Amino acid sequence: MIKRKYFFPIVIILLIAAMILSLRYGSVTSKWSDVSQALTNFDPNNQGEQLVGYLRLPRMLGAVLVGAAFAISGALIQGITSNPIADSGLLGINSGAGLGLAIVFAISSNPSPLAGITGSFIGASVSILLIYLVSRRVSFGISPVRIVLLGAALSSFFAAVSQSISLLFDLNQDMTFWFVGGTANLTWNQLQTIFPLVLLGIIGACLISPQVTLLSLGDETAVSLGKNPGRIRQLSMLFVLLLAGSSVALVGTISFIGLIVPHVVRFFVGHDYRYVIPASGIFGALFFVVADIASRLIAPPLETPAGVIITIIGVPFLLLQIRKGRL
């Protein structure tokens, strides 16, 4: 496929360019020399290099990591449910992770990254379990809209409980960032904790991608080729849990990346998940890095949360998919 042949190198080049621009631009524009020195010969006593090395570099790497993770988790969910409007945010998984994080903040005012990740995983697991149990008891698989409505209900419930906990324990200042989503508070310590988990989720998603392709063609096709659809779904949801849970612990409850990116990617690489998964990863990383740059430049020196920007793009995209009847 010609479009696939050119998609990967073009997006990789654009991603590298966006990563470099992310290190320079913000409320204060850094010098190219500071960017270069911070990457090659970092001087901790140079203020310009401190801005790049301590603030913008972990922020940029976090945006790459999280953008790829949310996009791949969305592609996986769409593949195993045959639901074109599925996304970890729309199904309430991100909000469940956010609730787990709120409980952790209520227990400890300054939780460790590991405690935050654990809380996010537990909250996301509860959300996934509820969706799984309800969808088994009711024929939600007939209509993707119904499972999204279930996710919207769970998302609203989890968000309400999270905000109640925030008010009860006076966590507004700590939790506001997680509700709107963004990369402003990323640190090297957080990245070191989360990186292995996200990497494991990405590798697992790539390894299981051929089986997800079979599953997207129907359970009968998978069974006829000796595959176990239930096992494929369980493994896929485990990887979604790793990717979405880690990402929410890092940047908050951001939705719509997993909805938008796989749709764009399929136009260029087709419906084979051996290509959809890695393509979603690199395009999701590009999408979030660009959104993060925009969040700093829209109204400097103030910062517009990246989650707000992505939602503004994502809602019309969702309505467009519904209007086209892709349900």
Features:
single chain; 327 residues; mainly alpha; ABC transporter involved in vitamin B12 uptake, BtuC; 13 helices; globular
Secondary-structure topology with pairs:
Elements: H1 2-24, H2 32-40, H3 47-81, H4 93-107, H5 113-137, H6 144-168, H7 172-180, H8 188-216, H9 219-224, H10 229-251, H11 257-269, H12 273-297, H13 306-323
Walkthrough of the structure:
The protein has 327 residues and is mainly alpha-helical. The chain has one domain (81-323): Orthogonal Bundle (ABC transporter involved in vitamin B12 uptake, BtuC). It is 78% helix and 0% strand. It is built from 13 helices and no strands. The protein has helices spanning 2-24, 32-40, 47-81, 93-107, 113-137, 144-168, 172-180, 188-216, 219-224, 229-251, 257-269, 273-297, 306-323. Helix 1 (2-24) packs antiparallel against helix 3 and helix 4 packs parallel to helix 6. The protein is globular. The mean pLDDT is 85.
